[in-house]
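Bug #77: duplicate submission created two jobs. Keeping one. Sequence:
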Amino acid sequence: MISVHYFTFGPFQENTYILFDETKECIIIDPGCYDSSERAELTKFIEENKLKPVKLLNTHCHLDHVFGNGFVAEKYRLQLEINKNDQLVLDSYLGVASMYNLNAQPSPVPSIYLDEGDVIKFGNSTLEILFTPGHSPGSITFYNRGQKFMIAGDVLFYGSIGRSDLPGGHHETLINSIKTKLFPLGDDYKVYSGHGPETTIGFERNNNPFLI
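Kept job's structure:
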């Protein structure tokens, strides 16, 4: 069974996820740890729970979701995995951070490109991938059918949706991703978002003002 733990990190209050199962293998999704104290918090959790990181994944590559890519990749000797359509977003990361006067660490170059239909394996567990662009050109969502949850990045939030006014974003594409990719999974799916609290597909289908 997969356990989901998240931290809220960085100046943009981004949710960083660690998923692990009974084997103690874990994956790290969207490490937003910005400073030394946040990196220490992430490391402490991994050490105290005797976890073994085996994958570094990004739902998308906006700066707040990749601040910790370099740290995680180096410390745990992991390769970065993203969707290829977000390569340009990752390439612009340090420039965007400079615009915000943020002291960001470089991210490694992706070694693996992920796409819809791929399966992420760790321990005894698996996650499937949906291609859900609109917030960024290469946004992907990781989901588990058995436990009915998803790690949705900045595609869908509690009562809201991701921004589509950033470079590579597109409002109609984002709405289409949510309605044709996420909604069909079912109302009982839990949504872990890139910012804010968790929600469910059913709640958002019936209450989200952007989707009604």
